[in-house]
Specification:
201 residues, disordered C terminus, mainly alpha, Serine Threonine Protein Phosphatase 5, Tetratricopeptide repeat, 2 domains, 8 helices, 74% helix
Length: 201
């Protein structure tokens, strides 16, 4: 019995030591070493927090796909879910996978509506996706005198061109709702502060 308790204690101590070394390396921006230490900690004592640290370090070290997969394991912990989604969204944004980034930022904001960084990054992802779509549609147009390729069709009189639904309308609506909620909260806090005459929140 004592040997089992000692083994459990030694394992958790080694896991804690590896985590501490990983945190120190991450703070020094030595992401490869941090990922290695967090992987060691996660192997010794698998936990959602270890997976979160490992996934975040993997993304920071340039292993975005691997890190995103590892962060998915951390999402089982409700306390880490919003942060894991946010970090995975950052990975997708850095990889120009705007649809995935938008999805993860929206899910982050559903869990934590006041998360300013997620809101800002959602705006960036939406803008970059829009710019990418515009550059693609701009690249397909043929200037007059160009050779080959289909000519754009002109709409006939009385007939409106078919409108495609905007896939990001729900993301924009959520963003507007979060911004509105933020403004209402600021107004409420100003009123409460004026009536209480206290410092702080």
């Amino acid at each position: 019995m004592i040997a089992v308790l000692f083994a459990v204690w030694l394992q958790s101590t080694n896991s804690r030591a590896a985590t501490a070394r990983g945190v120190a390396a991450y703070q020094k921006k030595d992401y490869g070493t941090a990922a290695s230490q967090f992987a060691n900690a996660n192997q010794l004592q698998p936990a959602a927090s270890s997976a979160f640290n490992l996934g975040t370090a993997q993304i920071a070290s340039g292993k975005r796909e691997e890190g995103s997969a590892t962060l998915a394991k951390a999402m089982n912990d409700r306390a880490l879910r919003a942060d894991a989604l946010y970090n995975r969204g950052n990975s997708a944004l850095a990889s120009n996978a705007y649809d995935y980034a938008i999805r993860d930022y929206i899910d982050t904001l559903k869990l934590r509506p006041g998360y300013a960084n997620a809101k800002r990054n959602l705006e960036i992802a939406l803008l970059k996706k829009q710019q990418m779509q515009q550059s693609k549609s701009g690249g397909q147009k043929n200037p007059q005198g160009g050779n080959g390729g289909p000519k754009p069709q002109q709409p006939t009189a009385g007939k409106q061109p078919e409108q495609k639904p905007q896939p990001d309308s729900s993301a924009e609506a959520l963003l507007r709702a979060v911004q509105q909620q933020e403004q209402e909260e600021l107004q409420r806090m100003k009123k409460a502060r004026a009536s209480n005459q206290r410092v702080g929140w």
